[in-house]
Design a protein that fits this description.
Elements: E1 11-12, E2 18-19, E3 33-37, E4 40-44, E5 49-50, E6 56-57, E7 71-74, E8 80-83, E9 88-89, E10 95-96, E11 112-116, E12 119-124, E13 128-129, E14 135-136, E15 143-144, H1 160-175, H2 177-180, H3 252-260
Antiparallel strand pairs: 1-2, 3-4, 5-6, 7-8, 9-10, 11-12, 12-15, 13-14
């Protein structure tokens, strides 16, 4: 009967009786001193060199490898070690090992907590601010209670800006901003990008309908899904683009062709109409 030995790290041979000298091939570069250890080697690098084999010049902390506020220091073998803040771990303090939101740090009951590496962020309701949404301010529009830097979003695939916008739009729904749009009255709470600027009712303090001379009150039919030709002018804000929706589809005979030749630099007169989007302005 034959047999086979599985050797421990650092040993070789049929009976695992030969000790491997990991320093035999002088792996340490740039004058580094090699020391054999179990299963490998360590290099003691000269001043100004670092890396497993002293292959890098300079100092290990020069590249600022420690993330999220970690403190970098040079180890005895010339490499770097990151001292991580509480709640963080990993070679470069890149692992968020604690969910700070579990302790419910946001004081206001309607505030939302967002976990970030070694810290937390509170999204405050209107009239509240501060890191923990604990400061009452009647002028505050709500939002993040502290500066946003290097935060992880809670929703996969969403950036923090997208998450912020989504939360703001939720506030728009609670305030009923959609129903207030186009009522010829500026609702300051809804005069934000997320709330579609109150349907242009505020228009930077200027009445957006001041130059509209239509015989009907265009602001009452603005963006109602029906085309009102009297309001379909620049002065009347083109009826909220309601008339664009009434355009017929591009002629089926030309549709596929027009899509394929859209904005290709050559004028195709059969596509040069509003229904076919003016051939991508090729005929201009």
């Amino acid at each position: 009967n034959d047999y086979h030995c599985n050797c421990k790290p650092g040993y070789m041979g049929r009976h695992c009786d030969a000790k491997v000298n990991f320093c035999a091939n002088s792996p340490c570069q740039n004058g580094g001193i090699c020391t054999a250890i179990q299963g490998g080697h360590e290099c003691l690098c000269g001043d100004g060199y670092y890396g497993k084999n002293c292959e890098y010049s300079g100092y290990a902390c020069d590249s600022n490898p420690c993330q999220n506020g970690g403190y970098c220091r040079t180890s005895e073998i010339g490499d770097y070690v990151c001292d991580c803040p509480s709640g963080l771990s990993g070679i470069n303090c890149e692992i968020d090992s604690m969910n700070e939101c579990l302790s419910n740090p946001c004081k206001h009951p309607e505030a939302r907590c967002i976990d970030k590496p070694g810290d937390y962020l509170c999204y405050c309701p209107r009239q509240w601010t501060g890191k923990s949404c604990d400061i009452h301010d009647i002028h505050s529009r709500g939002g993040y209670g502290s500066p946003i830097t290097g935060v992880y979003g809670q929703s996969p695939g969403m950036t923090l800006q997208e998450l912020d916008l989504a939360l703001q739009r939720e506030q728009c729904v609670k305030l009923g901003c959609k129903e207030k749009q186009g009522d010829h009255h500026c609702d300051e709470d809804c005069n934000t990008y997320a709330c579609e600027f109150d349907g242009n009712d505020c228009s930077l303090g200027i009445n957006p309908w001041a130059n509209c001379t239509a015989p009907i009150k265009c602001w009452e039919v603005f963006m109602n899904g029906e085309c009102n030709e009297a309001c379909n002018t620049q002065a009347c804000l083109f009826d909220g683009r309601d008339c664009q929706k009434s355009l017929q589809k591009c002629n089926p005979v030309y549709d596929a062709y027009c899509q394929k030749h859209y904005a290709n630099g050559h004028c195709d007169y059969g596509c040069n109409n509003a229904e076919c989007n003016w051939d991508g302005l090729d005929c201009e």
